[in-house]
Design a protein that fits this description.
Length: 92
Amino acid sequence: MTDACEYGRALFALAEESGRTETILADLNTARSAFESAPEYASLLDTPALSKAERRALVDEAFSALEEYVKNTLRILCEKRLAHLFPSAVKA
């Protein structure tokens, strides 16, 4: 079982190391709001009916304006079909 806190902590560490904590936190909150307002989107990103490439493409299209660390975290979660953990990872 994967703990959403692990992803959140790792992303926060990257944000601090890069000196872009405020930008990354703002982008995380933007993406979290999108997931919370449309929970079916996480279900779509977690479905095995789509290939990893298709799920990554959906993330790239929907979140193209966000910071790269945020998009990479979303891509990783989608590849593992764990997009539903994203809001919890942000809160962590």
